[in-house]
Amino acid sequence: MSSNTKRIVKIFDTTLRDGEQSPGCSMNIQEKLEVARRLEKLGVDIIEAGFPASSPGDLESVKTIAGIIKDCTVAGLCRALEKDIDASREALTTAADPRIHIFLATSPLHMEYKLKMTADQVFEQAAASVKYAKQFCSNIEFSAEDAFRSDPDFVCRVFGAAIAAGATTLNFPDTVGYALPDEFGARIRYIKEHTPGMEKAVLSVHCHNDLGLAVANSLAAIENGADQAECTINGIGERAGNASLEEIVMGLRVRKDYVNADTRIDATQIYTASRLISQVTGVKVQPNKAIVGENAFAHEAGIHQHGVMANRETYEIMTPESIGIPKNRMVLGKHSGRHAFEERLNDMGYTVDAETLESVFAEFKALADKKKVVSDRDIEALVMGVSAAVPETYKLDHWAINTGSALGATAIIKLLHKGGDARKQVAVGDGPVDAIFTAINEIVGKKPELELYEIGSITGGSTSQGESMVKIAFEGRHWNGRGVSTDVLESSIKAYLSAINAMEWDLAAGASKSPRREPLREGGV
Ligand code: KIV
Ligand code: ZN
After folding, report:
1. 8 A C-beta contact, residue 106 and residue 154
2. Which ligand is closest in space to the CA of residue 175?
3. Is the confidence at residue 510, as pLDDT, over 80?
4. What is the reported pTM?
5. Cα separation of 81 and 128, whole Å?
6. 18 CB less than 6 Å from ligand 1?
7. In this structure, are residues 82 and 90 in contact, taking their beta carbons and an 8 Å threshold?
8. Is any atom of ligand 1 closer than 6 Å to the C-beta of 143?
């Protein structure tokens, strides 16, 4: 099925909504903005920036992203409720190209047990909500939640009514990841052929990965006429995740001989986008993950290495460079100047303002004094620490730890508060990390629950920097923190402090608002 003129499939990225919604993947507003900028650079067509009605924080972050991103459509998710549509409308006011995305379930299970609505009521509400939203926005997407487990003819009727009311994209989700590729492809063809008015609209798919088939199902749908695929970087998302953006994009590109469709994605930005998501969420990419896993281009077996040396194509169907994995480059160290450093940042896909460059370069110099060779991974950690951080309520001034096999652990921590005062605390603990976190809690006057504490090394070897990851919860909300240092205890202090600063920042911003996500119930428009 090869042809020279390829159909262009739209990439609808939902990393910031479905991805962020999954446990352990929450991001602060700075991180979301950093991700949105990266998605714009990657060339996605639509960024689903959040679910504005779900919390004041979500509304705020969609608003911020909508005000800054100009080269992509920015979408806000809503239930089929006027108050949700109003929240999205408010969040998207400054978007260059806004999209209101409404969803309502159409499967018998969801209608009876979740919505407690009849099929006729769902039909009416779908059309009414689209009509309401259409007054404010020309670009409306309607999703039939759990579409794959719904009666196909009912979905066609609901989609037809949504199109008649003004929907321009109709999304067919496999919400629970139940479909198999052949039947999913056939279903998409059926929906395309039997929905009244479908020729005027875009048919989209949104696949979850519960059976590990989200990408296969998305590709089958594209082959059968879907013109938009919804996906996330690294496949993050509810439960087993969403279809992975990089796998869909490279599936189409590598098999261009077979599939008559492509996307507008700049594939050379894939690797840095994947690294960014893993950094900000703290969710590591499994080593054998397709396209972006650490081992995706590693050839261990001698027979493979021999083949690759003779001709890469023996065991490689795409090159690492095609997804932006850099070739071996000049080593950076303490003699490297600002110019070489800035060039390396650009090569790695980072564009930073002068102020950020100044601070990252200073940190690079300090690190290069301690470490002979500074790797790309080290640089990435430095940039993330500076560019995606929220303003610091507390800054580390100094620390000292006393520990040993025969002693308890004692930590002395001194922090500078943004108000100007210095706060010092001594605490004992069940080990040095416990002592550190206890001392910080006492200074801050809050005792968040520690949900995760992880420590790893950025590169191999004993001179590697330690990288700590912390997740904390307080009053039902969650924050991540990262810290990097050549000293593992200092990396733990920095990680905990960055989570505390994210918490303080959010709590201060939301002081006059309800900070919690409201429980999402659906009802009449
Ligand atoms: O999985 C799903 O059905 C969704 C919809 C809101 C599109 O995420
Ligand atoms: Zn979903």
Report:
1. yes
2. 1
3. no
4. 0.86
5. 9
6. yes
7. no
8. yes
